[in-house]
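Re: [help] complex structure
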Amino acid sequence: MSRMIEIVRRDLRLALRQGSDSVMVVTFFVLTVVLFPFGIGPEANILERTSAGVLWVTALLASMLSLDRLFQADYEDGSLELLALTPTALEVLVLGKVAAHWLTTGLPLMVAAPVLAVLLHMNADGFGTLLLTMLLGTPTLSLIGAMGAALVLGARRGGVLLSLLVLPLYVPVLIFGVGAIDAAVQGLPSQAHLLILGGMLLASLALTPWAAAAALRQALE
Amino acid sequence: MTDDIPTATFSAENLACVRGERVVFAQMDFRLSSGEAVLLLGPNGSGKSSLLRLLAGLLKPASGHLLWDGTPVLDDREAHAARIHYVGHHDAIKPVLSVLENLRFWARLHDPKSGDATAQAALETMGLWRLAEVPGKLLSAGQKRRLNLARLLAAPAPVWLLDEPTVALDRASVKVLEGVMAEHRAAGGMVVLSTHADVDLPGAREMHLDDYTPAPMDVSEVWI
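Output below.
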């Protein structure tokens, strides 16, 4: 456990000093969302109807932007070998790296989302649910993404391959994320959607570190 | 720093390593007890790095077992990881972290209880303490290597697996490394070292890896 915290601390420190992906990710998120009113017109009712979908699709793409760097830098400078030789399960260290990834990308996206929801005329009833879906959904994205990032490690054009691998797996999160917000906006209960999102988070929390660690070991052979 | 390591034996039976389609070495036995050292020699591609990675547990042997006091090493990877320090070709230094931060991270990861005092002592031994606050990106190749070697001292482990540790080191630093290795062995540690340079490792057993190469090989096909 203390080793996991050590990894999170190091990755946060690295993110902070390197000018970090967070700024890039959030900027991409904001810019892309802002493009939609230009593309589909400024009519409030159309924007309102599409707002949940636009926010979630864009958040999904944004969180994928920094994924290919998740293990790449450690792989190139030899850190990954030493991480694999740490006297603790590699799965735990993977969780630490994912936690740091979420804190530097998922969390900023969550903070930016309500502001952009205002821009898209989202009904105020949906704001709480939007935040909740982001809170449950973005860690799932980071976890699934880590699995993909570990798999494409060492491959050329890993970034493109990564999106092909990971985007299909993101679909359930998108469906239930948008579903929950739409339900809340229409005054219907969104609990079922949120529970499923929570279930997906727990399932990926339990499964993806194993898959990612196995892929990392493979990459190191 | 490496005080009283309990005596143990690290041994391998009938070890074979296959990289790609090629058998790098086969039918290798070796035995290493506390205080001993093995010097791996052999031409490029004879499997020195592969053997060290295999001993570290990064590679799985194609056949044979690694044993620690008679128990298979791969049964408990974590216990084995706690026993070894591996220094490979890469220095694993983050350019934006300072020398001390880099070292402290690896030391704490290896042994969460390791404190700042041991990190400082390790840097002083390696002649890096005055650079403690300097970011990794400003270090020369030799300084990076010394920082990587400082890990050996910052968190104790009985087995040191060193893959050409003298690359980029100046003569004075090689002397320091030799002294550190002698101290480690006097305290009951083990050293496995591969090198092309002259490293003074008194009483070390020499192992020529080309003795274990099964068939004549075409050097142009050797990729590690």
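DSSP finds nine helices and no strands in chain A.
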